[in-house]
Fold:
Amino acid sequence: MDTQPAEPLREEVQRGKYLDELELGVRYRHAPGRTITEADDVLFTTATMNPQALHLDAAWCATQPFGRPVVNSMFTLATVVGLSVGHLTQGTTVANLGFENVRFPAPMFHGDTLYAQTVVLETRASASRPGQGIARLEHTGRNQDGVITVVAVRSALMWYRQAHEARSGGGNTGGERS
Structure:
């Protein structure tokens, strides 16, 4: 029978990866996926003041090409990025700098499950912010059938590990109190 030590031997805090830990040519698959409900879509759509009938009016959508409401594409994009946070950027990102090449090749529908993956396209040191650099990340979302529903390239300003640990006194990456 194993016995529990009086105090933990070490403490590990969940965090994303620092810029210097990101690897080019690696596909980071994020788990779990996220099943999108009608409530998710309606809440996001109305909270963002988007009156588009494609997301809110099932009767009207029945007369349109998809035959049913489609999930708000901005919710799909936000969810794909959100699915990557715990794996890649939790507590290690300084700022989101922008998106490029955003596309939605296929719609998501209520009840679909969104799965995400990220490929690091490029990393470089910041010329103006010592200890920080920029990562270009390509996020891809697929539904439960493997159909690509969103692709976006995101640029994020991120910490290098040594600089962040020196600044925060040992690696406080968010969520815990020091």
